[in-house]
Amino acid sequence: MDNKEIIKLNRKYNLFSWSVQGAIYPIPMERGEGIYFFDAEGNRFVDLSAQLVNCNIGHQHPKAIAALKEQADVLTFAAPCFSNSKKGECAKKIVDFLPKGFGKVFFTNAGADANENAIKIAHYYTGRSKLLSRYRSYHGATAGALALTGDPRRVDAEPLIPGVVKFLDPYCYRCPFGQKEENCHLECAKHFEEVVQYEGPATIAAVFLETVTGTNGIIVPPKGYLPKIRSICDRYGILLVCDEVMAGFGRTGKMFAFEHFGIVPDMVTMAKGMTSGYAPLGAVAVKDEIADYFEDRKLSAGLTYSGHTLSVATACRVMEIYGEEGLLRNSVILGAYAKEKLQALQEHHPAIGDVRGIGLFIGLEFVKNRETKEKMDDASMSAFKSANLKDGVYHMTYSNLMNFGPPLVITKDQLDDVLAVLDKNLAILDGACN
Ligand code: PLP
């Protein structure tokens, strides 16, 4: 089949996620190799957002594929109530990556149901009903996870689950409290405590945070913010859940992003990079005291495919690849390199309002005017994205934001090629500035 036939077949029989069906151009993707994917006619594209910021080890990694095939030859499926060597090994590997005090892991299908199960566990363990989360967040598309989600994608599906209250973000580029870095007093953390007070601390089971916000603009919390949130949670017996579905597994240069900020959450939800997309899998890791609580109480949770056997076996191997190939170090070094180069581009491209991020988890925020910070319009964003695609670079955009999150196996030369394409096509966005 050629590209046109593939698109035609898919458009006829498939419904696509998050899209107006009649207005989409689903890029045909038939083959992958490292940081690249190829369409049916052999055209090559750099996968600058690692698909959905999940394919951290790159496409078609031979070690991951061997693990998947090896498991397929032995046993493809054991139901969640069975024990299995790979399931145990996979959970142990995760616990070993986490700080002391994290005892156990509950496996899920992916990220949304990791959050879904963290909600249940928080309810069971605390006996409280309310949940807090932030506006600039995405936690998944199932009812509970979407209710936690702050971004407007939740609105079409409302009403979702009750009892979720939102608060404002530590979004320094557009500080909701009108502050600048030099006079910031972490008003965002004070605001969180105020919301807790208004809602009644004894009613709140948990607060869910993307440790570093992903889809909604790669927001890295300012120094001191997360320790403040941690101490407010401790004061009121509220569980702190770090959603590391996107930020985890080396994306920020550490295995988990919370390690940058001197805090330890009570639960960590994860998915994406755990298998890097070679099979679907998610997990909730819980502190010992939470795990112990369920020793003599029922944990009412689970799906047929939670912790699928092919997925945990693949994850075991994928998690080894991070260490074997120095991917965390690559994320630190090449992330710093890319950020510096992007900041240099900002000097002669007025459309780049902000470049921010940590490791190879970088966001660009485009504006029409740096003074007013008026957001770049959708038509210009779409023209920019199409021009990059034409030049062999695929990336995600969301509103006026671009996600610069390549597979962690990217090299400096490959980054330089990408930066040259962006430099050229940024003229499109500069032309829309006023
Ligand atoms: N949490 C975060 C931070 C995410 O970025 C995502 C997906 O992008 C999810 C949860 C949902 O994960 P999934 O799509 O695997 O259900």
Structure write-up:
This protein is of the alpha/beta class and 434 residues long. Strands 4-10-9-8-7-5-6 form a 7-stranded mixed sheet, with helices on both faces. Strands 11, 12, 13, 15 and 16 form a 5-stranded antiparallel sheet that branches. It starts with a helix and ends with a helix. The chain has 13 helices and 16 strands. α4 (85-97) packs across α10 and α7 runs parallel beside α8. Helix content is 38%, strand content 17%. The structure holds pyridoxal-5'-phosphate (PLP).
Helix run count? 13
Radius of gyration, whole Å: 21 Å
Q: Provide the β-strand percentage band.
A: 15-25%
Ligand roster: pyridoxal-5'-phosphate
What is the residue-averaged pLDDT? Answer: 97
The low-confidence parts are: none
Multimer state:
single chain
Shape category = globular
Based on secondary structure, the structural category is: alpha/beta
Major β-sheet profile: 7 strands, mixed
- List the secondary-structure elements in sequence, H or E: HEEEHHHEHEHEHEHEEEHHHEEEHEEEH
C-alpha end-to-end distance: 45 Å
| DSSP strand tally | 16
Helix content: 25-40%
